Amino acid sequence: MESDDNTAETFRRNFDGEVIEKDIRNVPSFEMWDDADVVVGGPPCQGFSNLNKTSTEALSDERNELWRHFLRAVEDIDPDVFLIENVSRFLKSREGARAVKIAEELGYTIVVDTLWAHDYGVPQKRKRGFVLGSKLGVPFFPEETDEETRTVRDAFGSLPHEPSEENWHVSRKRVTELSKRRFQEVPPGGNRFDLPKELMPDCWKNKERGGTDLFSRLWWNLPSVTIRTEFYKPEKGRYLHPEANRSITIREGARLQTFPDDFEFVGARTRVAPQIGNAVPPKLAYHLGRAIKSHLEGKKAESIQRRKPNMISSRNRSGLGSKSSPNLPRSAVSNL
After folding, report:
1. Taking the CA atoms of the chain, what radius of gyration do you get in angstroms?
2. Residue-level pLDDT at 280
3. Is the Cα torsion angle 210, 211, 217, 218 positive or negative in sign?
4. What is the DSSP letter of 219?
5. Which alpha helices (DSSP H) does the chain contain, by range?
6. Where is the composition biased (Polar residues) (predicted)?
7. What whole-number distance in Å separates Cα of residue 256 and Cα of residue 243?
8. In 3D, which of 80, 114, 146 has the Cα closest to residue 295?
9. Cβ-based burial of 175 (10 A; exposed 0-12, middle 13-18, buried ≥19)
10. pLDDT tens track for 187-244
11. In the 8-state DSSP scheme, what is residue 240?
């Protein structure tokens, strides 16, 4: 289910599956898909993002409650397993705790954790939170891979430094002369603090602390920072090419997310970049999928695995699952 038309079409072009192009809030029932074994979703994360300076306890954003509609789908479909992905702050929020409570009341054994993408072969230090529920026993997250940490050079060092119009190896179209002068002043690994005062915008002159990733260059020999929805704008983070005087291209961002080069994106570059930045890196998704597949085939964890004790609900502190409440009325989500 996807409300954005370009994202929906991108999915159609790459996967053999039905796409419902609709706002999930406008779907009255999900029971027509009650033959699904697994339900996976990523409710909007913007309200929980660390870029939102509001305290976790005081978060207020209408998108923050869309997870309720995801769990409404879980309630209607009654799958064996479900998975929620969001930024890690979701796990510490009031909404995250409510989501776990509802899922337990629906009869699911829940494990929660934060995973780092670079631990699973992704050349990017991206931390995300996951809520995994099962009616088959105690589910589990994938073990970290043994492969060497992949770097920016591994991801796109083979691409030409000069962007082209081929296969999304395109950078920001309109770049001012002032921005070009600023690019030239940032050394390898440098940031906005390396700019001469005369080239700094007033807002940066008055901000002497913090924001060290703004207008910064990536390092060749390290994983990238988190690829967000506007990674083509160096003013938004460490998105300058390690050597070239430009921001990274759409293709370079896609490679940092581990999208294969033959993956087809639909839309203008400003519509494609959010598709890339909002995605779970495919390589991380692959490992999550394998763990869920193993669980469906009978593998179970020996105990509840939680590395974030502040997320453990009062009902599950003993490490036991929530199978004791399988007969909860079907109104559990709407009545919370």
Report:
1. 21
2. 97
3. positive
4. P
5. 5-14, 67-77, 89-92, 94-105, 152-156, 177-185, 202-205, 250-256, 269-278, 282-296, 332-335
6. 311-336
7. 16
8. 80
9. middle
10. 999 999 999 999 999 888 887 777 778 999 999 999 999 999 999 999 999 999 999 9
11. B
What average pLDDT score do residues 244-272 get? Answer: 97
Rounded alpha-carbon distances, angstroms, from residue 113 to 130, 184, 250, 283: 6, 41, 30, 18
The rounded percent of the chain whose pLDDT value lies above 90 is 71
Catalytically annotated residue among 24, 40, 45, 155? 45
The residue behind tokens 């060497």 is 148
Q: Which domains does the chain have, with CATH numbers?
A: 34-140+300-335 (3.40.50.150), 148-279 (3.90.120.10)
- What are the pLDDT digits (tens) for 42-60? 887 555 545 544 544 544 5
Cβ neighbours of 10 (radius 10 Å): 23
Do residues 110 and 277 touch, judged by C-beta distance below 8 A? Answer: no
**Quick check: 82 and 33 in contact, CB under 8 A?**
no
**Phi/psi at 217 (5° precision):** -95, 140
* End-to-end C-alpha distance for the chain, whole angstroms: 24
Nearest to 133 by CA among 85, 88, 87: 85
Looking up tokens 């081929």 gives 166
Could you read off the pLDDT of 173-199 as tens digits, one per residue?
889 999 999 999 999 999 999 999 999
Is residue 45 annotated as part of the catalytic site, yes or no? yes
**Can you list the positions of beta strands (E) in the chain?**
38-41, 81-87, 109-116, 127-134
CA dihedral 13, 18, 24, 26 (to 10 degrees): 120
Residues contacting 164, CB < 8 A, separation 6+: 170
Cα distance between residue 171 and residue 208, in whole Å:
29
Q: Is the pTM of this model over 0.70?
A: yes
